[in-house]
Design goal:
Length: 332
């Protein structure tokens, strides 16, 4: 009987490295796949609604898997590696397609001489936010309309003491305990068009020749309320033909309600200015995150309104960034 020579050490090492690479690539693909499926299906039951929030982050494991599998494919062809590389590239491209509008694309331009209206949204986390800081930002940024979510009577009193009642004397909505309150402050007269039946105060107002939906629907942790209230935003926006939707929407651009709003003509200010990925929550190390990871605070504008610029910034003692957008009418 002839002896069979054992495989050379170098060859055996390459095989082990190839297997290890395939295992790592497979784990990377599996890490992103639940997020992709949640985003594709739009299923709003828990935990899918949470996974959907992190859709942009699936780019990272898919990119790593693609690079790894392409390297393996170049070094040694194989059907399994080729299939894996094709799947990784496809999944990567799907997420690039979803994220790309944040970085590239056209947008309506303001009409010559159109009035600029600066709109700011701030969630002050049960009224614990620094009221004087918010008022200072309103003053320095020339804010015309301020939407404050989770505003309490204590925060309102502190803000007025810091000068908000002089800067923005007209107000609609109400302060309340914990998260229920929402008030729209403006430097011009305003009228309430309608109330929206969300657990927290949401209302449609008219000011500065704009109709705004100022809203704060329930968070996804209250999944039943979240699923019931999110469609109300689109209904109210359509019914009252609003120019902008402003506030803590408790939903990202990957959730069905925002996608429906975008599909119906209300686009996010960050997307309209090619501002890239701009997460607003959670701030101050809340929930174990060292920095904001999801964008749930929005200014959404319809095509009759141009977004001249947009910015976001942290507010001390809150878990949200405030969002400031400058709006102007487009040419007829």
């Amino acid at each position: 009987m002839n002896d069979v020579d054992p495989p050379a050490p170098a060859t055996a090492g390459r095989r082990r490295a190839r297997r290890a690479g395939l295992v790592v690539a497979g784990l990377l693909l599996l890490a992103g796949l639940p997020i992709t499926l949640a985003r594709l299906t739009g299923w709003t039951a828990s935990p899918s609604v949470v996974l959907m929030s992190f859709a942009p982050f699936a780019l990272l494991p898919y990119l790593a898997a693609t690079v790894l599998l392409v390297v393996l494919l170049v070094r040694r062809r194989g059907r399994l590696v080729a299939v894996g590389a094709g799947a990784a590239v496809l999944l990567l491209l799907v997420h690039v397609w979803w994220v790309a509008p944040l970085f590239v694309g056209s947008a309506p331009q303001p009409a010559a001489g159109a009035e600029r209206v600066v709109v700011m949204s701030a969630n002050v986390q049960f009224g614990s936010g620094d009221a004087a800081f918010v008022v200072d930002e309103v003053r320095e940024r020339g804010v015309d309309v301020l939407v404050v979510s989770e505003i309490t009577p204590t925060f309102l009193a502190a803000a007025d003491e810091a000068g908000l009642d002089e800067l923005l004397p007209h107000r609609l909505g109400r302060a309340a305990d914990r998260a229920a309150g929402t008030i729209v402050f403006t430097n011009e007269p305003a009228s309430e068009v309608a109330a929206v039946e969300t657990a927290f105060v949401s209302l449609v107002v008219r000011t500065h020749d704009l109709t705004l939906l100022a809203t704060h629907p329930a968070p996804p942790q209250s999944s039943g309320h979240w699923r019931r209230e999110q469609p109300l935003l689109l209904e109210a926006a359509r019914e009252h033909d609003v120019d902008a939707v402003v506030g803590d929407l408790n939903a990202t651009l990957d959730h069905p309600v925002i996608r429906d709003l975008v599909g119906s003509g209300w686009r996010d200010a960050v997307e309209l200015t090619n501002g890239g990925f701009a997460p607003t929550w959670p701030e101050n190390g809340e929930h174990g995150f060292p920095f904001p990871v999801v964008q749930i605070d929005h200014v959404l504008a319809r095509d009759s309104v141009a977004v001249v610029d947009v910015d976001s910034f942290a507010v001390p003692d809150t878990d949200h960034h405030a969002v400031v957008a400058t709006l102007a009418a487009t040419a007829p």
